Amino acid sequence: MNPTNEQAQGLYRLCYRLTNAIYPQWQYRNIELVRIDERTGNLYVLAGELDFEIKPSGGDEP
Fold it and tell me: How many other CB atoms sit within 10 Å of the CB of residue 49?
């Protein structure tokens, strides 16, 4: 299963935010895991103690 174009763009935006490129006052987060959940079609991102799901529409939720 492949991510949608919207998911790929959402993943890019999320990774950009997490790696401290936009908000210098935020603490840098290592991105440890990116995986697609084949049951739901959501992308799962683990970054330190935070986790996110990126829906097929491209929206992310902590």
Answer: 6
Q: Express each pLDDT in 4-62 by its tens digit.
A: 999 999 999 988 888 876 666 777 788 999 999 999 999 999 998 889 999 999 887 66
Query: Is 45 in contact with 11 (CB distance < 8 Å)?
Result: yes
Cα–Cα distances in angstroms (integers) from residue 18 to residues 1, 28, 41, 42, 62, in the given order: 25, 6, 22, 19, 12
Buried/exposed 27-42: b ≥16 CB within 10 Å, e otherwise: eebebeebeeeeeeeb
Between the two ends of the chain, the Cα-to-Cα distance in Å is 23
